[in-house]
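Appendix B.2, paired examples.
Example (i):
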Amino acid sequence: MVLLQQGKFDKALAAFEKLLASVPPELLERCKMYLSICQKQLDKPPLTFSTPEEHYDYAISQLNTGYYEEAREEFNSILAAHPEADYAFYGLALLDAMTGRTQECLGNLAKAIELNPRNRFQARVDNDFQSMADDPRFTELLYPEVP
């Protein structure tokens, strides 16, 4: 059930298929129903996006709902197709800050700022970087003009 709730339909399908052989009769129909749900989800066509920005919005929605692994895949997918997408580096920096990956956060945020200096000002007011606030490297990255 956890795999199903996490949207990992391929793994959930395999688990329910394995369970089907030994499930008590009173749970057989429910198990078949979950198998059907998994199969329907797997048969759906993959998501397509009209623009990289639309893809970014989807990645942010994954991030905001706690699907960190999926969000990382989406941000990396954007960067594979658009290596200069500053907003995807910014999204990865957010994700890294939220998941405690300090060094990766600093690297991705630095790249986002390099590609678009306005990201520096956005990061200064972004509450998602709260965990980075006490890191002097983060402060230096956001306020390079301060001696």
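Example (ii):
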Amino acid sequence: MPTRILIVEDDLDIAQLVARYLDKAGFMTELVASGREALQAIAAKAPGLVILDLMLPHVDGLEVCRIVRGNDATAAIPIIMLTARAEESDRIVGLELGADDYLAKPFSPNELVARVRALLRRAQRGPGPAVATKTLAYGPIALDTDRHIVSLSGEGVTLTAKEFLLLEYLLQHRGRVLSRDVLLTDVWGYRYTGGTRTVDVHVRRLREKLPVLTDALVTVKQFGYKLVDPAP
């Protein structure tokens, strides 16, 4: 069964262009033109991925993203924001609310397809080669690589697709200093052009959801991050 992708875009020409390229790539697409319709479609049947415009009638894209991420049943759906707003502040707000990726108009349809494939591939399989164990542990954090479940002291924690994959990568490479460029390439799955602030936003969200990482996930000034070994 092809992955169903929900395209939320009020410009019909752009929506049809995106759908045409995704259909050609083997995906199944559904088009809606407003934030209200998007929320109804997601509630009726969760898509495999959402391509979400920022400027929408009724309910804007940022609010749609916030609502989707605030519902445990839909919180893990991958979201790519597609918008005419190219300013970094708008991009960061979208990422702060839980978007996994961001592509500004005008865009290359082929690049969009590549990002969709990369995001779905990483969300389904995880970054890098498969690890021998099904569960990665770090202090009170337990990460199930097969079921994409994370818990903190036995309590479930809801992460987005990219938050999960970033945490998995950090656990697999604990003790190593990882540059932002390396994280973007290995976790996002391609040479990302949206700016390294993307990594910073996702790291901040991981620290908020998993407070044990506040001190353990160390910022290496002007370079990247290092996950130190947990305290005994």
